[in-house]
Automatic annotation (TrEMBL):
InterPro entries: AA-Vitamin_Transporters, EamA_dom, EmrE-like. Its main location: membrane. The keyword Disulfide bond does not apply. Residues 6-139, 151-287 form the EamA domain. This is DMT family transporter.
Length: 291
């Protein structure tokens, strides 16, 4: 029970941090494009994680058979998922960013079934259907401009890849330090992204980087959202099973939507709330599933 409570606390912390992240991304991405922003926040995160790792005297050894899983986590979760997430947030709104990626728990149920062989029950199946319908309502099949629809599609890709990454984390031994796993997976993502980013860095208006909101945003994204957020998320997942762990992702849209409304003045339409309620009901089905 203690593990469940502690794991839940880690996941709630991670999701709340990421909910606030959408508002920061929406502000910073107006100056730094998504790909370059992901790269910059990872550079900051690597420095933070290495400092934490050396202070806490981590064991950095990884068995050969787990190297491929860490590479997959880095490419799928830290590179593809985060780039599509920030691209989607740029093209749509902070609220849409937070709410669509909250469909992740439902996708995790599916991946956990095929990869970890966790049982797929009627309740879990229903949760996937409800979350998917909720996402469609929010992305809007109707009156939404092309930019927002592309943003929505990009965010769905982010949710799918993040769900897959979260299930892959469960394949690693729980004895492995999350500081070490997170550091290595971010290093993989940096290696993948660097060739694409370096030729484009000169296009960033560096004069605007001196604004406190921009450099402060980059530091927040690197240290709080990336280093701390990933550590909390991966640690929490190790303490709960994959299907249940993903549920706490729902704290993200609640924080993201409220901050988007409070700080960015984004409006909350009726379809947004109907979609949110459907995703929330889908999430509750998984919470109350007896494993």
């Amino acid at each position: 029970m203690k593990n469940t409570l502690l794991g839940s606390l880690y996941l709630i912390l991670a999701s709340s941090i990421w909910g606030g992240m959408y508002v920061v991304v929406k502000v910073v991405v107006s100056v730094i494009p998504p790909l370059e922003l992901v790269w910059m926040r990872y550079v900051v995160a690597i420095v933070a994680l290495l400092v934490i790792g050396f202070i806490t005297r981590q064991n950095w050894r990884i068995e050969k058979r787990y190297v491929f899983i860490i590479i997959a986590i880095g490419i799928i979760g830290n590179a593809i998922s985060i780039v599509t997430q920030e691209t989607g947030t740029m093209l749509s709104s902070a609220q849409m960013g937070a709410i669509i990626t909250s469909s992740t728990p439902a996708f995790m149920v599916v991946f956990a079934r095929f990869i970890l062989k966790e049982k797929l029950t009627l309740k879990k199946g229903l949760s996937v259907c409800l979350a998917t319908i909720g996402v469609f309502l929010i992305v809007g099949i109707g009156n939404m401009d092309l930019s927002s629809k592309l943003g929505g599609l990009s965010l769905v890709t982010a949710a799918l890849t993040w769900a897959l990454m979260s299930v892959l984390v469960k394949l690693l031994p729980s004895a492995y330090s999350q500081i070490v796993v997170t550091t290595y997976s971010i290093m993989v993502a940096l290696t993948v992204l660097t060739p694409f980013v370096l030729p484009r860095l000169h296009k960033i208006p560096f004069s605007e980087l001196t604004q406190p909101t921009i450099w402060g945003g980059v530091l927040y994204l690197g240290i709080i959202s990336t280093a701390c957020g990933f550590l909390f998320w991966n640690r929490g997942l190790q303490m709960l099973n994959a299907s249940s762990g993903g549920i706490f992702f729902f704290f993200q849209p609640v924080v993201g939507a409220l901050l988007g409304w409070l700080i960015l003045g984004e409006s909350l339409g009726i379809m947004f709330w109907i979609g949110s309620i459907l995703i929330f009901i889908g999430v509750l089905f998984v919470i109350f599933e007896k494993n």
